Structures are given as C-alpha cells and as structure tokens.
## 1
Amino acid sequence: VRFKVALRFVFKFFLPHHKLSLSQFPSSFFSTMVNGSETTMPCMFFNHGGGPMPVMGKQPEVAAFLKSYGEKFQDAPPKAIVLVSAHWEEDEVVKVAGSVEHDLFFDYYGFPAETYDYEYPAPGEPSVAAEVVRLLKEANIKVEMDNERGWDHGVFVPMLCMFPEAKIPVVPISVLKNQDASQHLAMGMALRSLRDQGVLILGSGASFHNFGFFRAATAEEQEAGAVHSEKWAAWLTETMTSPKLTNEERLAALKNWEQAPSALACQPPNQAEHLMPMFVIAGAALGEAGVSIGGKTEADETNPDMASKWAGVNRLIMNQFEFLK
C-alpha cells in the first residue's frame, strides 16, 4: 500500500514539476519498479548437429537436448530470439535478418528429398532487428540489414527441435569470415542489453568441427581425434565456467583461443566458423562464468553407411554453455 501511495505521488507531483512524461521512461523501468526486479534472459551456445539429421531422427541426443531446452521457456517464452548462425558468414559487415517473412535456405546436400520440404513459419521481428543494428552501430561494428537471405539450417533445424510451434519471432544474424574472436566477443557485448528486454540470444555452431576426425576411418585416427577433443574440451570448460577467473581474464583467454591445447586440431585455421557463435554468446554474458549443459553428438548407428563414414564422431566432445548472468 505504501509503495502504491508513493508511486501516485511521483506520477502526480514529481513528474510534472520536473517536466517529465511517462513516455521518457523505458517500459523496463516500470516492470522493475513494480516487481522489484526484471527477468534477464539467458544466452546459450549449442551444437546444431549435422545438417538436418536432428530433425530426421538421426541424431536423437542432439534433438532431445534442443527440445528440452526449449521446454524451459513454456511458462515464460522470450519476446524474440536473436540467433547467431555459423552457416551465415559475411566478409566485413555483420548482416541482420530484418524481414517478417522469409524462405528457408537448404544449405546442405545429399539428404533425402523430404528434408528439402521442411517449413518453419516463425516470423521475423523487424523492431528487434533494428535494435540489433542500432546496438552494433553504437559499438562501431559495421552492420547492415538483410531482408532477402533465407534462414539456413543453423537456424531452422535447431528451431524445429527447440520451438516447434514456430510462434516466437526469430532474428538470425551472421558471423564474420575473418573468424576474429575479439570482434565476435565485441558483437556479443554490444547485444547484452537485449537480454534485459526479454530477448533470448542463441549461438548455433559446434565446439569441435574437423571433418578429418569426424570421418576418421582407422582406429589410430579416431584415437587421435578423441585425445584432441578431450584436451580442447577441458580447456573450453575451464575457461567458460570457472568461477576462479575474472570476467577480464575469461575474455582475454577466449581472444587467444588458438593457443589452447589442441585448439587448431579441433577447429582448423580458417575453418573455425562454427566456433564464432560461441564468442558472441560469451560476449553477451560480458565474461561472466557459464555452466556446461548437454554436450554430446553422435553418428546414426542404425545406418551402416552413416556409421562407417562418421565413425569418429561418437568419441568427440561437443561443448555447450549457458550463461544466466
């Protein structure tokens, strides 16, 4: 009661006296005033699997993780999703999907015909896209709106698993071909405030992405891949989750990720586009410690051809991280 009386006093006497209007206050101000705090959406980096395989039922553990993560938001869905896709690379300028309607971009090859008929009719959200552009520009990051490009499988495959109802607006954004960790961390830091506006920020990629080890045919090659994977995963987990690191130390370590144990064996030089979304997500957490969640990929052992071609996959670790702060 006392709070309501005080609020009426502010609205009746303080605002007019200081020539202020309610429109000059962000909506979040009133949410915070009434509720005492405002919900901050998490940000999360995840493994999107191989092509359409999670949707096909060929990577059930990947699909199950994505489904379970989406279910966390059943009672309080995000206002929109900003999704950084490893499958959208641009030369020097970050691109942001700004249209309401979109096509799907089936950027995979050699899969059954039905995998090219998928639909994911969730809308885009131009107002959120415009805010992404504004925030990146304020951080002196080159950025442009793109209303033409379809949503690639780094977007629609995980969204089909995570939010199959396709009701939550999605705003895909690109990574940069330079694969500079510092620039991608800066992108995430610039977008941090979106999380306080009810926007879920997701990074779609893979912490391990070396096709030589994915398709390792001999026991020796598979063992080498597994050893590299363990060393790299241990470093990533420590760096991304350790409370012993300060935010500054964490960000500095990530900027120099190529010096980490087995880093370049797991993410070969100039082929690390699948790691770039992770840096955006770490930046959107401002270097706070995250937690490891899920983190396994697998070949389709029911398909002899697939199991043979991708025999090395089952021994490789796919790190995934969520940040709540």
## 2
Amino acid sequence: MLRFAVLVAALAAGARAQLCAQSSVDAAGKSGMALLQYALDTGTWEKLAKEKNLDPYEPNETFEISIPCKYFGSTFCGAQASKCKKSKVKMTLKDILGLASLHVDKLEATEVHPTDGTCSYSESGNLDAAAINCGYEGVGDAEVSLPAGKQIQVDVRNMELRVQCRNTVLNKSWWETPFKSSKVTCTMGSGAQADANLNFCAATCNESLLSSSFSHAAFSDFTFSNYDDTLQCDASGVPSDVSDKLMEAVESAIIGMFDKPVQDILNKMLDKELKGGFPTKCEAPASPQ
C-alpha cells in the first residue's frame, strides 16, 4: 500500500481563496483524488512518459549501494576464515524501460484541511483568481502497481561487488572485489507494488466541490515492495558455483538503487502536466453576452 503525505493548496497569482468549511474541503479532497487518479489511469501517464522521453529513461548515473553481508559477503569471507563486516555494490544505471506501464491503483485523501489558497510547494500558480473557490491540504493513501502482463527492464553496466572481511585472530580487515560484470539486465514483472509520500496543491473551481484543479504534485520516499518473486537478474561472468548467492546480492543492490530514479521520472511527468492545470485548468466561466 502506497502511503503518502499529501499537501493540497489552491493557488493563484496575487489572489487568495476563501477559507472553506471542513465539510466542504473533505468532499473536495475526496473528489479531487478521484479526478487525479482517473486522469492518470486513462492514458495520461503513458502519454506523458512517451512524449517526454522518459520511457525509456536513460540517466547513465553511477550508484554505490550498501547491501547485507548475508548476500554473498558472509559466504565469501567465511571461506577465508574471516567474517564479513560490510558489503556494497557499485554500478552504473544505463536505462529503465517500461515505466509507462505503472498503474495508480488508489489515491485516497484521509485527512483534509482548508487553506486560504497559499501553496507551500509551488512559487507560482496556474489558476484563474476569479474561478478559485476552496483551497485545501491534507494527507492520503495510495497504491501503485505493475499490471499483469507488464514488466520493467533495468540495464546496468560496470557492476562491482565489494566485500570487507575481518579476521579477528589477526586483528586485520581488508576489502576485496570478488565479482565484476560489464552488463547486468534485470526484469521486474507484475505483482510489484510501491509505497511513497505525495505532496500536491489544488483548488476547487467555480464553487463546485466536484471540480478540482491541481497545480503541483510530487512523490517522495518512493519504495518498491513485494518484488522478491517478480525480480530476475542476469549478469555476464557469474561463476556457476556461487551464482545464486551472488545474484541475491545483485538483486538487493538493484532494488536499493531503483527507487529514486523511478520517483524522479514520475515527478517529471507530473510536473510537466500540472503546469497547465490538471485534469483541467481552473478558469472563470465566460461572461454572458
């Protein structure tokens, strides 16, 4: 289950929304989350990923991830009459393919508060002052998953597994690099879910509690879970006698590296779309002729 801290505030250049009753913003928050989820799940998510060249995503970024010694380190040091103190993997994330397939299963406001239209998360708004009614902020829950039949592929280059062993008898510690691979390919299949926080700003439009326009939304603390049975990695040059333990170490490091790039991609998609108002721009109705 994806938990996220949600901040929603109406915003308009040089204007303030009225402070609405609690019952009003409760209804606005509920309908606003439903509108946002519907918009993302009816093509917008996939469309944005393709248009902004975020699927495939090609960060070409190097990471160094600490992993538990139980993944290969203990076995490696034990063979040298020593114990594993630390274990880490250094790798370059070349690209991620398939993020457009992520599905927002649930967005639900659980606590909502009225505001006067001041947004803590965005310096400028996209809402017409004459159209703003209620500003609101709150917290909520959500679920994001990879649907059946879909997968995310991760391409990693220049991976090194580093292990620090310690011999207590000799009172000596040292680092070794028991494994290097020029290329690692990992696939995450359906069943994987993610948890995150989400900050966002919105307002109701034209005195309708069923119409909200968002000017900002951003994930934080994005973390995949339930991936153990869905993640499979293949690395070049893996010794057959240590393959299982070694690949457990690789998969642990991949997940540790994976969350932030995915969060960054999703935020880039949201940020671009929300600059114009989302799902629709909040505008005052046309004056009667």
## 3
Amino acid sequence: ADAVPLQPLAPNSMIHVGGALMPFDVAIVCLIIGLVLITFLWTENYGGAAPEHDSRQSEDTLMHKFTVSMRLCLSDRRIWLLGLLVASFEGSMFAFVFNWTPALESLKVPPPYGLIFSLFMMACMSGAAVSTMTEGLIRPGTRLALTFVAGAIAFGTAASFPGNLPLTFAAFLVFEFCVGVYFPSVGILKSEVVPEHVRGTMYNIYRVPLNAVVVGLLLTHLSITRIYVFCAVLMGIALVGIYAVMSAPSQIPDAPKAVKNT
C-alpha cells in the first residue's frame, strides 16, 4: 500500500490510485484477466433436457422441489441434522467475521488489519490443503468432528482471554484453519446425504436457519465475550449433529431415473 502514494489518475481527476487503494487497484486488474480467460477458455454447461416420458419433466417446479425436499427432511433425519450442523458452524463463522476486528483492537498499536486478514486466508488455505491430503485417510465425518472440537476450543479460548491479543489472534488462526477443513469435507458429506435431484433446493433450505442465527446475533447486541461463548456452543451443537449423521442409517428413497429409449 505504501509502494505508490495516493494520487489522482490525471490532473483534476476524481479517480485516485495508489496508497491504501493499491490492493484494490491490483484486484481490478486480476478480475479483468480472469474475465478474459473465462470468456475464451471456459464453456457453458447448459445441462440437458429430460426425456419426454421422464416424470421429472412435468415436476420441475419450485413448489414441487420444495415439497419433495421437506418430505425428505421428515423421512430422513440425516438431512435435517446436516442442516443443523451447517447452520451451527457457518453461523458461528459469520459471527466471527462480524466481530474479529473489535476483538483485536488495541489502544497502543493500531492492528494491521490487512496483514491479519491475509494470515487468516493463509490459515484457511492450509486447512483446505490438509483436508485434501487426508481425503483417503480420514472420513469426511471424522474430519468434521475434529474440526468442530478445534473450533469450540478456539472460541472458548477467545472468550476466556478477551484481553490477551496474541492468544486471541492464535485462536482465530485455528478457527480459520477449521474453516478451510470444513468446506471441502462438508461438501463431500452433502453429496452423500442430500439426493442430487433436490440438492439445490435443499441447500437453500439450509440457509434459512443459518441466516436466522446470523440475524439473531446481530440484533441482540451481545458483548464480544458472549458472542464467542455462543459460537463455542454452536460448535458443540455441530459436533452432536455430525455424530448423529454418522450414526444414523440412510432412509432416502431412490431418486427417479430416466427411462432409456429402446
């Protein structure tokens, strides 16, 4: 940010470059390069039309998918338990996003928020890499269980030592590592639990309790310490949820299949 001083793009121009805006200027260049590469190298996946005698062709309405999804939630407890753990972990993640900056505030030295966020992203990337490297060694459910335990410890540490900035920052790095492990692992688990023909609808249903958790936390005006205590509790709920998902047998009926022409 200090490599180029903040200055107008041209004399008397309202557009400025450099200074603290420099990372955003570089991001614009990266996005333009990505746009060009995607435009010329990627092909669009338009999907395929169902056969005329396929029962899904006449049942592809939003209300029908929602009805089928809710019936599956009631018939297979693994589906709604998965939604519970998704809402718990991701709700605590968004609560962390909203509250990590005030938790690291210091009156003596202004925190380098850009560097801190970069370290968070590196921790998240490291977690995703570990999840990939252990894919054939540890089941996704086991990885998630260990992730929820580590997340609960991290939030418990942040709540127990609110004035200890180094320890709080270390706890946040551990949680960001957990976030990196979580998303690849829960993606595999979702593909195993949620039927493909209602997957998009079910994922949207999962966001209802997730958004309720986030909005509820924002409206309660809890202190930082209580928020992280609540996040630790959410990690415990997610841990119970993943244990229940792993121990419950699947009760999902087979998805309708297209009839081949002979």
## 4
Amino acid sequence: RLPLRAGGAWPLGAIRVARPQGLGWKPCPCGCSHIFCAEARHFQFVSAAGPSKGGTEGGYQVAVRQRRSCFHSFRTVVANEWVIGGEISYTLHVEALWSSAAIAIGAVSPQAEVNSDIGWAPGSRGRAFAWGLCMERPSAEVGLRGIGECEQRSLPAGDVAACGGPGASRVAPPEGTALPMVKQGDVVDVLLAPKKGRLALRVGDSHVELSLPEHVASQPLALAVGLKYAGDAVRICCIERGAVDASGWAGA
C-alpha cells in the first residue's frame, strides 16, 4: 500500500510493464491486428509492414479514419507512448485529407476522456486535458458536396482554425495572426516537452507554439491527432528523442 498524505493508503497491485513493438498509434480496443475490426469504430490501422503486421501492442504507423464512417465528425487517435520528461519530436505525414478540410494535432494527458463524445478533437473547445491546433472547413461549406446532412462541426460557427486548450497560452504565432492550415501531403513536426509545459508544431515555414498550464509539468503527454472524414489518414514517425535542439523551433 502507498501511504497518502491525507491519511489512509492506496492499494497497489502487480503490473506487467511491456514496451510496444514499435512507435505507432494505440491499437483498437480488442487489441487484434486486423486492418478492419468491429471493435475499432473510429479508426483503421496499418503498419509499414502491412495491415496485419502491427502487433497487438502497437506498431501501427498509419491511422485511417474509419472508411465505413457515414457521420463525419472529429475522432481522435493517440500515440502508443507517453512522454514523461525531456523532449521528443515527431513527424506526421498527412497522407489523405478530404478536400484538405479538417484535422486536429496536439497532445493529451492521461486524464483526457478521448472520444467521450462526438466531435472530440484536441484544440477544440471544452476538451479537458487536451491542447493543440484544430482546423475545420467553414460552416458556410457544410451541406455542400452532399455530405453536410451527415456532418458535425467542432469549432464555433465562423471559425476555421483554433489553437489552445484549457489553461494554455498562445506563444506563436501572435494573437491576431492567421494560423497555418494543414493540407493533404503536408509534413508536420510536433514537439512535446511536458516538464517545460511546451507544445510546438511546425507546418512548412509556419510555427505554432503553446505554453501549457503548470500542472502539466507533473503529467506525461501523448501525441494526439483528430481526423474527421472517412478515409483521412496520417502516418507517424519519431525523429528525435532526448535533448532536441530548440533553435530549430524558434519559428518563423
């Protein structure tokens, strides 16, 4: 038992610590290794070695918004590792993005209730323990191309991009400056530094950075990406761990 300051003790139990087979996205709830599974309602997963080679503990580099989805709303996929200290930089390859219309990129802490309701995305309004950049096509376009009746937006009417999260402050770009819009084919670098309360994204020559609330310094963070339209896909890879040269993130 672990003694608590307020009195009493927290019961401890045995755990099994296992390292994922490789960096990727968390697999579907049942832990199977198939490209399609009835339990994976929001995403399908593919590894670099093929659709069934990711393994039950991770290693799926590509997350695809469920191709059979008929209701278009944000759902979020989370990386299969937690960053507990130092800095780590990931590269995201946006392989498919319907009309380059919607994506959310950011980070979550363990308390985040990911996909607890419709339209869940980091950087959108009211998502506790989640921060990031969220973009979505204008509300005026909803209903076009025959899918609007099956669509729900996550950003306020009139907004096409938002950056933030509970308790976060925007470091770059300055308030009033337009946020970058991610397109199909883009490569996005994401830096997580939980002890420094830092989340940074680089989209081409554009730089986005958030200063996270102080309580984040005592919590791990995981990369999170929200996709909206059926077939949208993003691939993850890690480019550097440990001490990342911050000069490259000074941002233009």
